[in-house]
Amino acid sequence: MATARHCGEEAVTTYFSVTNVTKRFGGLVALDDCSFDIEPLRTSCVVGPNGAGKTSIFNVITGFIRPDTGSVTFKGEDITQASRHHRVDRGIARTFQNLQLFEELTALENVMVCLKDESANDPLTAIFRPFHTNAVLRRKTAEAATLLEQVGLGHKLNAAASSLSYGQKKLLCIARVLATGAELVLLDEPTSGLAAGALDAMVELIHKLKAQNRTLLVVEHNTQIVQRIADEVLFFHRGHLMARGTPAEIVANEELGRIYFGKGASR
C-alpha cells in the first residue's frame, strides 16, 4: 500500500511556500503550524473534512486574513503582511465559494473591469487621453472576449451575469481571475454544485489552465475529481496539514479515509 508523505518532509521548491503558519479565532485554532511548498506549473488539491482549515489557508495566502505566526513567500518575496492588491499585482488571484460578480453587468464587462491598464502611469497618457481611452477600451474589449472564449463563454459576451446559469457564473469568475494576469490561481470548490456536463467542462478548463503555464491550488471535495486533476494532494485536518502525496497515495491511505469519510463510509 502506498503511504502518503507527511508534511515534515524537506521542501522541494521555493516558488511558493507557507511556513509555520498558525491562525486562531478566539479559542478556535483554524490553522496549526502549517508548512508546505507548491511547485510551479502543477495542480495541487487541498482536501479534508469540513472545518479542516482549507478556506482559512486560502484566506491567508490571498491576504484576506493575517496569520498570528508564520510566513507566506512567493517567488522569493515575503508577502505575509502584503495587501490583497499587492498579491494580485504579483500574480496571485482566487475564486470564492460564494460567487462574486457584478450581476447587473454583462459577462464582457465583468471581465473588463479586472484587466490591468499597463499604460496607466505613462505621462503621455494625460496628453493624449481621448485617444488613449479609446485604444484601451478596444484592447480591453478584445482581451476580455478572448478570455471568455477560453473558459467557454464566448457565446455569452453580452449576456448579463444575472442571466447566466450557476455553472456559467463559475466560469465567469475564473475568467475574471485570469484577467488579472495571475500565474498562481486559487480555485475554491470550482466543481461544487455542477451537473455532470458542467463538471466535465470545469475539469477540462483546469487542465487547460495548467497547460497555459499556470500553477493551480484547488480546494476540492470530490475525490474522483481530485484524481482527475491533481498532481499532488494536501490533506488538512483540524487546522493541521496532516499529509501530502499523490492522489493515489492519499486515496489509498486508510487512516485518511476514515477521517475524511467516517467509519464505514464509502468513497
Automatic annotation (TrEMBL):
GO terms of molecular function: ATP binding; ATP hydrolysis activity
Keyword Cytoplasm: no
Residue ranges the record marks as coiled coil: none
Transmembrane stretches, start-end: none
GO CC annotation: plasma membrane
Keyword tags: ATP-binding, Nucleotide-binding, Transport
Listed CDD domains: ABC_Mj1267_LivG_branched (cd03219)
Domain ABC transporter span(s) in chain numbering: 16-263
Presence of the UniProt keyword Transport in the record: yes
A Pfam family reported for this protein in Swiss-Prot or TrEMBL: ABC_tran
InterPro entries in alphabetical order: AAA+_ATPase (IPR003593), ABC_AA/LPS_Transport (IPR051120), ABC_transporter-like_ATP-bd (IPR003439), ABC_transporter-like_CS (IPR017871), P-loop_NTPase (IPR027417)
Family classification: Belongs to the ABC transporter superfamily.
PANTHER family membership: CONSERVED COMPONENT OF ABC TRANSPORTER FOR NATURAL AMINO ACIDS (PTHR45772:SF9), CONSERVED COMPONENT OF ABC TRANSPORTER FOR NATURAL AMINO ACIDS-RELATED (PTHR45772)
Primary role: Involved in beta-(1-->2)glucan export. Transmembrane domains (TMD) form a pore in the inner membrane and the ATP-binding domain (NBD) is responsible for energy generation.
Name of the protein this chain belongs to: ABC transporter ATP-binding protein
Lineage: Bacteria, Pseudomonadati, Pseudomonadota, Alphaproteobacteria, Hyphomicrobiales
